[in-house]
Amino acid sequence: MLVKLTSSTSGEMVIYAEHLRPLFELLEKACTAxxxxxxxxxxxxxxxxQKAADEDREQSRxxxxxxxxxxxxxxxxxxxxxxxxxxxxxxxxxxxxxMKRTLTAKGFILWxxxxxx
Length: 117
What we know:
117 residues, alpha+beta
């Protein structure tokens, strides 16, 4: 299911509900078919998402450093089973940017989906 987030001042974005759910859980927002981020809620939401994204990036750096320290044989085994990981920081970035632009312009963000997610 797709969720459309529309800023009153800065455009819109569309994201899969399954990718938006963890972000909304961080923000303690209900994953309802419709909702709003008010102007007053945006600074806290941005701060929480940015903190979580920073922590995710740091964890990715530590994992990369651990991977670099492995022997060549271990690296070859990992390559065969490795999957591309899209982290929370990558998923949160577009939403953070939309929220920042909306906050600067003193707007709000509405979201809409075909049902609760």
